[in-house]
Amino acid sequence: MNKTLLASLLALALAGCASQEPEQPFTLTLAHINDTHSHFDPTDARVTLGNQAVFTRLGGHPRLLSHVNALRQQASRDDQPLLFVHGGDAWQGTGYFKLNRGAMNADVLSRMQLDAMALGNHEFDLDNGRLSAFIQSVNFPVLAANLDASQDPDLNGLDNLKPYILYAFDGNKKKRVDSVEDAGKRPVVAVMGLVLEDMANISPNVGKLRFEREVNSAQNTAKALRDQGVKYIVAVTHLGLERDQRLAQQVNGIDVIVGGHSHSLLGDFSNLGQGDGGPYARRFNNPDGLGTTCVVQAGQFAQAMGQVNVTFTPDGRVSRCEGGNTLLSDNAFYRDIRRGDNHKLNEAQQQRVAAAIEAEPNISMVAEDPALRAHIDEQYRPALAKAYGDIIGHVPLPLKHVRLPVDGKGSQIASLVAASQLYWANTPEVQAVTGRRADFSLVAAGSVRNSLEPGALKEGNVGLELLPFANPMSLVSLTGRQVTGLLLETINASLPSAAHTGRFPYGAGLRYSFNETSRGRGYLSRIEYLDNGQWQRIEPDARYQVVLNSYHASGNDGWHTLFDSQQTFTDRLDLAFVNGNLSVFPVARLSKNGQGVIEVHYIKQSLNCKTARVACDTDARAFIDYVRERRPVLTALPEPGVTLNRL
């Protein structure tokens, strides 16, 4: 046999062997953020390193951008596929949003080159016209597979609002494609979105949108993608960690869930004095017993970024899912939260702190992206500084807000907000309008958006940050039995692991003790109200005047008892300023429309907070008046009001 023929036969044999080699595993890196809530600037933070507490600043969007760009550069060098996604709730949270109403969010997020974003509940805080403008302005797809927008005039037919998006990869290079066929032999990753199925009960401004069941929509979408030949499926959700984990155990075919809504900073951050948030990248078995789904989330307020590396078997199942969240720190450190020049660590101390951070796996010093920092400072910060207004008081020590009490310590801020509402409702000026005296107040933890740090407190710190939702105050009479039922339903709903804790109740002029008897369940051992300086037991059949914001007074966000008590008749009064004068708006009853949205029916004139002559932010004004008139040096209340005894 001649050498040429022998060489040809050998080449064919080798080619045949090569064609039978197993397909190489595919590995995808996901960088992810969620619940950034317009925190474009960094937030003050206390970090423990060793036995030393230091104060610095964490996150902010320019720092996020620097960090994800570093991940992109590394992925490019390694020829590694990477996607950068947002788990929703980019809106609300700071004065930037109040002033720019979504436009700044669209501007800044587009500069960060996201690959996809889920719709969060706070994206519905304005109206669907504003949301439509946001979706059309951003340069990345906004995803919601269980959202039916076909009947809504603002969101129907938007090219950039999709159930899912497909990305084809050639190493690190990616391209959006319409189908698996368009990708050729390149691996395709589908990113689908999921929004809260009960959105209509959480966000009142959903127009004519319909929200389908999360599990059903997720399963139908995953099956449709698998039937198309998609091997790798990522769900970007805004459901909360508990529902993400349940989704992973009830749906076949989703490989990774990147979540939001519960603000869960997953991972053990006790080395930094930040607590243990539970495992990052936890895997759950699918109902078919074959696949697994990896679930991750990255905290809140643009303070951290998650990075998860997912390796798949050749047939498209997850074989490895590893990574972690990283807190993104400034490089300046202080011994006091006031961050004065006299509080700054000296050079040797700064170097020791920097070395300690370098040794920790879950925090990193990251410089801000200079171009984005300059853009924010030039385009948006001047108006923000002007909007903050007059100083109303001073905060001498940090006042911490936590949604759910931890180790017996609840929110110092929520208690103060409740105290301000009770004080305001009982001022002569307000009583002259309502003709009533409030017995006690109630506040949901989610109504309060941040802690307060030492320093001057301005009007804008309250109306633009602490209480940004501009909710009217309400007075409504409830029986003792209804008050007890409300407390039980909201506390029990907040206790399960990774539950949405924004509905947890705080109060003023009211105190209660709750004992957990099994995981996520318990009973009230004490419930009392303050009557002429004396604590009295709440009587089941007695009626009490309760002051709270109108959002929760209508039963939104799981305060169902209030909705149930007002369907037929109510004596509720909503309070807002009309042309600068405090006015009362009597409510006749509540109902729900076809989308499940709670509607308020007024006896005479309806309260329309969108008109220029009406100011509905009486919740913020109550706090401002309270600080200015009663607590110019603002410290925590001596009586916490809430005793939560956990197992």
Tell me what the structure shows.
- By secondary structure, this protein is of the alpha/beta class.
- 29% of the residues lie in helices and 28% in strands.
- The protein is built from 19 helices and 33 strands.
- Strands 8-6-5-4-1-17-18-19 form an 8-stranded mixed beta sheet.
- A hairpin with a 6-residue loop joins strand 15 (282-285) and strand 16.
- Helix 13 (412-425) packs across helix 19.
- The longest helix is centred in the first third of the chain and has 18 residues, at 61-78.
- The protein is globular and about 75 Å long.
- It starts with a helix and ends with a strand.
- 47% of the residues are buried.
Describe the secondary structure blueprint for this structure.
Blueprint lengths: L2 H17 L6 E8 L9 E7 L2 E7 L2 H18 L3 E5 L8 H6 L2 H9 L4 E3 L9 H10 L4 E2 L3 E2 L12 E2 L1 E7 L2 E5 L2 H4 L4 E7 L4 H4 L7 E2 L2 H15 L3 E6 L3 H10 L5 E3 L23 E4 L6 E5 L7 E9 L5 E12 L17 H13 L3 E3 L4 H10 L1 H7 L3 E5 L16 H14 L2 H7 L5 E5 L10 E4 H8 L6 E7 H15 L10 E4 L1 E9 L2 E11 L2 E4 L5 E7 H4 L6 H5 L8 E6 L2 E12 L5 E5 L11 E2 L2 H12 L12 E4 L2
Parallel strand pairs: 1-4, 4-5, 5-6, 6-8, 11-13, 13-14, 14-16, 18-19, 21-28, 25-33
Antiparallel strand pairs: 1-17, 2-3, 7-12, 9-10, 9-11, 15-16, 17-18, 20-22, 21-24, 23-28, 23-29, 25-26, 26-27, 29-30, 29-32, 30-31
Helix pairs in contact: 4-5, 13-19, 15-19
